[in-house]
Amino acid sequence: MTGYAPAEAARRSGFSLDTLRYYEKIGLLADVERTAGGQRVFTDDDLGWLVLFRCLRDTGMPIAQMRRYAQLARDGEHTVDERLELLRRHAEQVEEQMRLLQRQYDHLREKIRFYERLPGR
Amino acid sequence: MTGYAPAEAARRSGFSLDTLRYYEKIGLLADVERTAGGQRVFTDDDLGWLVLFRCLRDTGMPIAQMRRYAQLARDGEHTVDERLELLRRHAEQVEEQMRLLQRQYDHLREKIRFYERLPGR
DNA sequence: CTCCAACCTGGAGTGCACTCCAGGTCAAGG
DNA sequence: CCTTGACCTGGAGTGCACTCCAGGTTGGAG
């Protein structure tokens, strides 16, 4: 157990195989294990990272910042404060994003109501 | 009144001047009025469209779809049903987007709590 | 063993939504 | 009039995040 073939890792993470390779190439996902023949073997730990990346990506964090976070984590325990700070700042931006989305959604619903009340319907 | 210089329209809409020109070029914003010398004059009606485009853009609608909506509106009253349908479908997608964002935000907050509870802080 | 689906690499290509540029024109204040 | 800051055009360039490709290798089923 705790060893997933590329296709399985893609399925579980929801990222395409190309994206997984891309994430490794740019140093987001560090040094994935390989078989003797050079094929990737993803661990549960890798999968955990991918779940986090999905969370951060879905909330709009740019890749450069995810990479910075991943680098901090690799640098060890003494970066915990900085990592926390980074996540907190991001959470604030997500809150702002949610407020904007809600505001524009309300606007959209108003527009829809306008159409629904139009005579001749 | 009801005639805004390009810079003023940019300021009021929150789009850059380049973006306003781009939106006109691709036929999203149709045929903006001009002075004798060829400089744009935006009307309140144009500004209204820009407010709508901002709403749709902020909620993730691709430009191609906005253009389709604008075209329908230009085509006249008989497209009202189709426009309504388009907006409704988009609203559903925004709802889905909000749910995902909320879910991932919760996930992010959990991660932050994990860091906050770490010993040595 | 043999097969073939899944995998590998480096690098080029894509799609979206702008954004910038060069080289000129317009128009309002002094 | 003259200046100068705002504006014009067509077209090239940018940034992001993938996505696709050619040409070759791997490894588990039969």
Task: Please state the overall shape of chain A, judged from the principal axes of the Cα atoms.
Answer: elongated
> What is the average per-residue confidence, as pLDDT of chain A, rounded to a whole number?
96
Radius of gyration of chain A: 20 Å
The neighbouring-strand order within the major sheet of chain A is 1-2
Provide structural commentary.
The structure is a homodimer of 121-residue chains. Chain A has helices at residues 6-13, 17-25, 44-58, 63-75, 80-116, and strands spanning 33-34, 40-41. In chain A, strands 1-2 form a two-stranded antiparallel sheet. The first copy, chain A, is elongated and about 70 Å long. Chain A starts with 5 loop residues before the first helix and ends in a 5-residue tail after the last helix. Chain A is mainly α and 121 residues long. Chain A contains 5 helices and 2 strands; from the N terminus they run ααββααα. The longest helix of chain A has 37 residues, at 80-116. The mean pLDDT of chain A is 96. Chain A is 68% helix and 3% strand. Chain A binds chain B through residues 52, 54-56, 58-59, 80-81, 83-84, 87-88, 90-91, 94-95, 97-98, 100-102, 104-105, 107-109, 111-112, 115-116, 118, 120-121, and chain B through 52, 54-56, 58-59, 80-81, 83-84, 87-88, 90-91, 94-95, 97-98, 100-102, 104-105, 107-109, 111-112, 115-116, 118, 120-121. The structure holds a DNA duplex (30 and 30 nucleotides).
